[in-house]
Task: structure prediction
Amino acid sequence: MCAMLAPTPSPPIEVDRLVKIYKTVPAVDGISFTLKAGSVTGLLGGNGAGKTTTIATIMGLVLPTSGRVAVLGAEMPKERYRVLHRMNFESPYVEVPMRLTVRQNLKVFGMLYGVEHLRERIAELARQLDLTDLLDRPTGRLSAGQKTRVALAKALINNPDVLLLDEPTASLDPDTADWVRGHLASYCRDRHATVLLASHNMNEVERLCERVIIMKRGRIEDDDSPAKLLARYGRSTLEEVFLDVARGEGIHSEAAQ
Amino acid sequence: MTSAVESAYAISPRRIGAMMLRYWYLLRSSWPRLLDLVYWPTVQMVTWGFLQYYIANNAGFFARAGGTFIGAVLLWDILFRGQLGFSISFLEEMWSRNISNLMMSPLRPAEFIIALMVMSVVRLSIGAVPVTFLAIAFFGFNLYGLGFALVAFFFNLMLTSWAIGIFVSGLILRNGMGAENLAWSIMFLLMPLACVYYPVATLPFWLQPVAWALPPTYVFEGMRALLIDKVFRPDLMFDALALNAVLFAIGVFAFLKLLQSARRHGALMQTGE
Result:
């Protein structure tokens, strides 16, 4: 676990037979997984695979139909206020207020998350994320890449032990996306944070994740390290593995068969 | 780095302050938002003030009832603007697609509601206080001359506006921006029944119990008793307070149930229509 906080005996994230049904449509259909402290895990799947619902349920934003989710030992969503200050989230589909300046946004979220020495923390994040010159500009007037850095600063404001990322580099140019991935990698390494990353970007997953969970139609189709998945499917890239799973073409390698 | 506050029921002044700061930054950054707070109350008061001025010069009864219309306009504005101030601060979160961020943060629903209530008073003050001075300058009507009665009127009207604002916010959380229009229009449903500009006795007999079930009715009757008969009616204020307590409890209960329903239906992930 995070070196600066007391160790938690429970796994950072435990999902046990989670089911979420919207009306009659199962968005998540009986998935189970446990994440190790300090691990970075990719959640792969096509549109409608259930990735976002899984992440939202872990955050306590969605109530499960059945099954159990626990974060840092707290049952979600019932005990979410025990741990929400140790978690955070980033997604390009959830924005920070555009009329507020970067500094104002970080101050508001810092206060919400109970961050101590907030002024210093904002200055530190601004340095790390190259936002110092942008701090007093309205967030809505920034470029897409700059906004992503602001969203990342918001997600890291409380030095979360558990970080949930939903396509954090979607719609970014390759250079900015690469920069964001680099920063995430160093944060996870330095803080020993546990990260669950939903993404469509296979390069991102290969670069950041030591474990990959592949979802399809609300179920887990496969779950292993990138290297083992490549070997099992007899493929050279995760994108090919993803396509095999998405198209139901199964495992190709003879060894696996 | 963070200070842990674990109970779901713990109220943090710092988190409430964070939300108020967020709305204050927003107001400060946008002159159209500030102008919007002032212009409509001014237009209302001036229009009704001149109408009353005209009638007062042509009818004996209204000559006695000096200030009734202007008083009603100003008190109605407290009710309407109080609810709108609450609902617009809430809608700002929906418009800016920030509601998911808040719902995933340690901010408790009670803290969110308290911040919205305080901001509704701030917004109302920015909009209504200048108008009360205009009423003195234009028509010689001094709302503050009502003294303690004004405090009782204000408190009761704000309680009603908060209760309705809380309920409408719950509806928007659950049903998305398709329910936004309710924030603008729901108070006008009350207007004819709350007897803002005429006594309850004006209503058909069968409709009067409905009017008496609404807390603002007691306030507007109390205002007329004060301005026309020069009598302050504490009994009306206590009745309004009791009804407001019930209405507020229903509003909060409905909000929590609608929030729970929004979590169940995944509505907090989709803040569009």
